[in-house]
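Here is the promised in-class demo. Please do not try to memorize the tokens; focus on the logic of going from shape to residues.
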């Protein structure tokens, strides 16, 4: 372990989490900073200010990804920490923010100790990780690694109809940097687990081995509006009923498949949405996830067959649009080993585990050795204003990030375990 006595300034990190959490604060202790809105801009401005104050050279690319670089003794791809600072509408203060601010804290700690590393160290936050306003999720990091063109991302319209391009211009984060620069030597994302496993098992640290596959689909259901009192049940073409049946089937598929299969209907909008009118229109989303691609496909196929039968039986038209589709991702085994070892060296209990949530790291894994560190979420709660992680766990996670990044940044050889410098498509 390089610099074994180096420790982050926990007070500074916690204060920054609080300060950033005040921007877009909502009742109950949570945060609403939907991607590319006014609150996101204010959050970005604050983090960019901190990055500059820490001496980082900050660049903003066409899609609004922000990267701050601290030089090393030699030029070349930096070792990067990062995550996102956008939130869902009912977000917590830790999701994403922790990874960005802990990365910044690593830089501050190196500065305070006067340590110059062999390779540059970078901190990044990527645009629209959540996907709550614009689909797909992880949009900025997907563009960064060349998985989606900047043009297609910029043309994407959000749930309010505004495009990514328009919103980036409005908030002034349509930067001049080329997407995907700089190349990355290795990427490590610290994140709250957002699930119950670590807390339930009394484990301090998750060494994340990969991310499960994600399938998001939007369905539009067109039926016929009619009088709720006079229309016989057999003569209805009820878009509301069809939406409810799909929601029940999503739960049924997950229940019957068991294992890692999960399914969620997170949004349904009915029209005209009145007590005494059969709905003629429904717009809904389905989120299916599984760690196994074959099983995820099976769940998708089963739902598609159900929906075709339902449309026939109810006499409604159901059309679908894919919002996001990502296969399961494996992280770099050598880097996962390294995180596990470093956690044990620091006296922590550690568990190798998959991530249920999507993360920017799953995109960076396409171009460089990548892995994640999880710290426990109290009650396993996330995407909820009650999201909370104990200060002591934040401290442990940030110090682990510090030690892993320091080691990666000091190595002259690529020793991440199968490490490769990033190459872009
Ligand atoms: C992103 O947070 C997701 O997993 O939905
Ligand atoms: Mn997140
Ligand atoms: Mn999230």
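The designed amino acids, position by position:
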């Amino acid at each position: 372990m390089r610099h074994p006595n180096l420790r982050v300034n926990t007070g500074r990190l916690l204060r920054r989490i609080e300060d950033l959490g005040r921007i877009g604060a909502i009742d109950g202790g949570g945060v609403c900073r939907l991607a590319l809105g006014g609150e996101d801009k204010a959050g970005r401005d604050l983090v960019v200010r901190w990055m500059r104050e820490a001496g980082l050279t900050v660049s903003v690319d066409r899609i609004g990804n922000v990267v701050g670089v601290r030089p090393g003794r030699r030029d070349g791809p930096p070792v990067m920490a990062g995550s996102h600072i956008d939130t869902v509408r009912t977000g917590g203060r830790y999701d994403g923010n922790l990874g960005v601010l802990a990365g910044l804290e690593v830089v501050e700690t190196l500065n305070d100790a006067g340590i110059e590393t062999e390779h540059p160290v970078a901190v990044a936050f990527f645009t629209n990780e959540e996907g709550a306003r614009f689909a797909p999720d992880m949009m900025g990091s997907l563009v960064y690694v060349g998985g989606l063109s900047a043009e297609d991302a910029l043309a994407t319209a959000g749930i309010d109809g505004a495009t990514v391009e328009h919103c980036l211009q409005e908030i002034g984060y349509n930067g001049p940097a080329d997407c995907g620069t700089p190349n990355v030597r290795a990427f490590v994302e610290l994140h709250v687990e957002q699930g119950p496993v670590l807390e339930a098992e009394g484990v301090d640290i998750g060494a994340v081995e990969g991310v499960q596959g994600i399938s998001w689909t939007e369905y539009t259901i067109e039926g016929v509006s009619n009088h709720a009192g006079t229309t016989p049940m057999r003569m209805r073409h009820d878009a509301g009923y069809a939406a409810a049946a799909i929601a029940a089937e999503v739960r049924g598929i997950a229940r019957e498949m068991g294992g890692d299969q999960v399914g969620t209907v997170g949004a349904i909008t009915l029209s005209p949405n009145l007590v005494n009118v059969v709905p003629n229109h429904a717009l809904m989303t389905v989120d299916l996830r599984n760690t196994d691609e074959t099983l995820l496909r099976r769940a998708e196929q089963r739902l598609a067959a159900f929906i075709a039968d339902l449309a026939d039986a109810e006499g409604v038209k159901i059309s679908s649009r894919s919002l996001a589709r990502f296969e399961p991702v494996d992280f770099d085994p050598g880097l996962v080993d390294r995180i596990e070892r470093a956690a044990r060296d620091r006296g922590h209990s550690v568990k190798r585990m998959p991530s249920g949530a999507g993360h920017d790291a799953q995109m960076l894994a396409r171009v460089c050795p990548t892995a994640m560190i999880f710290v426990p979420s109290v009650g396993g709660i996330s995407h909820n204003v009650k999201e909370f992680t104990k200060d002591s766990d934040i401290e442990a996670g940030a110090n682990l990030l510090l030690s892993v990044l320091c080691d990666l940044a000091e190595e002259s050889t690529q020793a991440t375990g199968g490490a490769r410098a990033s190459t872009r498509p």
